[in-house]
Amino acid sequence: MAVTNPKPDPLAARLAGLAMPDGGAWVQDARKGALDRLTVQGLPGRRDEYWQFTRPDSLNAPDPDAAGVFDAGGEAPVYGEIDRLKVVFVDGIFSAEESDPLALAGIEIERLAQAAASDIHWAQGFYGVLEERGQTPVARPFAALNTAFAGDGVVIRVTGKAAKPVNLIYRHENETSDALLHHVVKLEPGADLTLLENGPAAARFNKVMEVEVGDGAAFHHVRTQGRDHERQAVTHVFARLGAKAVFKSFTLTVNGLLTRNECVVELTGDDAVAHIAGAAMGDASACAFHHDDTVFVTHDAERCESRQVFKKVLRNGAVGTFQGKILVKQGAQKTDGYQKSQALLLDEDATFLAKPELEIYADDVICSHGSTSGAIDEEAMFYLRSRGVPEVLATDLLVLAFLADTIAEIEAPDIADDITSRLDAWLQRRRG
Amino acid sequence: MLKINNLHVKLEEEEKQILKGVDLEVPAGAVHAIMGPNGSGKSTLSYVLSGRDGYEVTEGGATLDGEDLLEMEPEERAAAGVFLAFQYPVEIPGVGNMTFLRTALNAQRKARGQEELSAADFLKLIREKAKALKIDADMLKRPVNVGFSGGEKKRNEILQMAMLEPKMCILDETDSGLDVDAMKLVSEGVNALRDEGRAFLVITHYQRLLDHIKPDVVHIMADGRIVKSGGPELALEVEHNGYADILAEQV
Questions:
Q1: What CA–CA distance (Å, rounded) separates A103 from A186?
Q2: Does residue A430 lie in a domain region?
Q3: What domains sit in chain B, N to C, each tagged with a CATH number?
Q4: So what's the ipTM on this one?
């Protein structure tokens, strides 16, 4: 009888090159717990319904594919005009040299590695906790992997109104870097923080951010991803909101071979508000573009409001996907939930795949979703051209108009203007 | 200025001939009106002249100052001086009225080799023009035509015309949906633009607009042709007797 080779274990291969970082007992417990979760879940496969639109192969592979370092030339940095506390990571490693001193009125901020080394730390009871909660009802193996193996990131405790935004800046220098970052943000009741993120982070990037928003606290998150073409990224935001808490998250994505952004939000206090928005622009003429927004909002309290506003502009073979769910638990009366996912397909090669879901167990709620994909409005196009606006410029005007209601989710006007000018510049470069 | 010669047009998608040999010449400084019953081809003529998709010219042509209009893209026609005031101005959510107008004006200037207008100069100009048309700052800030009343949309068309200063203005049923006061305001806007270097082609169903915008020549269009031309009195004749008599004469 022939001896068959044992079936190769993809998870073992994936983990072979990873080592659990050192740390105090509390963080090691959290990491081991995450590894146990991951072991039970295994890596996502092509048959997983949650991965039906996005192939996880390159994220599962033991080693990342090399990704060229993007040269932004002399362009002004994102958020450059905004007074902010800069925290820089290079290929997933904190750079004290390039960062501002980690001190800001209204917050306590430190490096994860430093917090993890302490025997007693406030982050105990938060690190990996929201991630674990977010694993049901849907498994998120890359988030568990992150909790188990991430050694760097920031932990931020917000005690009042942060004196200025905190900007996490990611820099990519090594063409084969495989970065894991894990951030924990805890907003005490009534606290207020704006968190900005930008920059190509690594060849392959896995990031988790856990955000606990206390009663009456407000968290504003604005992120730009790009413009590195060959990036492969999987990111998770896990948030839990107390009563009257506000959570607003906006992401602008341009370029990227593969980007999967998951956002898992739980409304656990009455009258909380969560808005999640995303604008993605993909042109796969030079390099493939695949962008996946996967969102799960759970209403578990009364009179909460949630909004999902996701828009994608796709051309030349670019692919956009959206999986969005609103779960309204029993007793979450007077829930107001809305979900919008739209794609503007600029040619016949672009693809948009969407799976909007509502699951409702309360009887007095307003919940709806709208998912559309379509081409440029011919009437609007002719109107603009008849006034002398050339077709290419008219297209860009209509693209900006299409994305406008995602940007409207950014509350700070100066940040919203900065984002609009990025979009504008991206379109202008394309026009040449 | 505008010369239309034996223009035959059919719908691109179907075998339906709409214009069946239109001949028309509008000289600089003149105001010509086209009247005619529904389905006579008036709006098609305006769309074909401004370059809308969906039509096929099967015979004849149209020139602006000797240049072949039909060969040009819509934006090239605009830069050459053609302006169509739409019967149904299009709403464009997300594009601010100011941004729209400034982009259009500067694109035209660029196409003509002129310098672009600075933000400050543009603002000064638009405020002045908007005031005359009773268009307030709020309307300028709002997205193009979104939430505008019928009258506001038409005033916005005339504002665009005033800003872009075209040579050849085509007004497609600009009076439709206007009350008496709005019609007066719009007409005043148009009349303020009348000068020796500019020509107008005013398309309308009714004579009443022509009380305000006095035409030099009135054409009656029916079944894809100009069937009768005359002075302003022709419009009054239509008003009193309808089109039936005129059309009967043709048979």
A1: 16
A2: no
A3: 2-250 (3.40.50.300)
A4: 0.96
Number of domains in chain A: 1
Q: What is the pLDDT of residues A105-123, one digit of tens each?
A: 999 999 999 999 999 999 9
Q: Which of B74, B86, B105 is closest, CB to CB, to A385?
A: B74
Assess if residue A414 is contained within a domain. no
How crowded is residue B125: how many other Cβ atoms within 10 Å of its Cβ? 16
Find the closest chain B residue to A395 by CA distance: B95
Low-confidence ranges of chain A (pLDDT < 70): 1-7
Structural domain of residue A221, as residue ranges? 23-377
Residues on chain A touching B94 (C-beta within 8 angstroms): 398, 400-405
Q: Does A391 touch chain B (CB under 8 A)?
A: yes
A392 CB within 8 Å of a chain B CB: no
Strands ordered across the beta sheet of A366-374: A93-94, A85-90, A166-171, A192-198, A218-225, A246-254, A273-283, A305-315, A336-345, A366-374
Whether the pTM exceeds 0.80: the reply is yes
Segment B190-247, tens digit of pLDDT = 999 999 999 999 999 888 899 999 999 999 999 999 999 999 999 988 888 888 877 7
Q: Is A105 within a domain? A: yes
- The answer as to whether A394 is a domain residue is no
How confident is the model over A138-169, as pLDDT tens digits? 999 999 999 999 999 999 999 999 999 999 99
B135: left (phi over 0), alpha (psi -120 to 50) or beta: beta
* Shortest distance, CA A402 to any CA of chain B (angstroms): 7
Chain B residues within 8 Å of chain A (Cβ atoms): 50-53, 73-75, 77-79, 83-84, 86, 89-90, 92-95, 99-101, 103-105, 107-108, 111, 143-144, 160, 164
Give helix B180-193 / helix B119-132 axis angle, nearest 10°: 130
Say yes or no for a CB contact (<8 Å) between A383 and B90.
yes
Q: Give me A143's structure tokens.
A: 């988030």
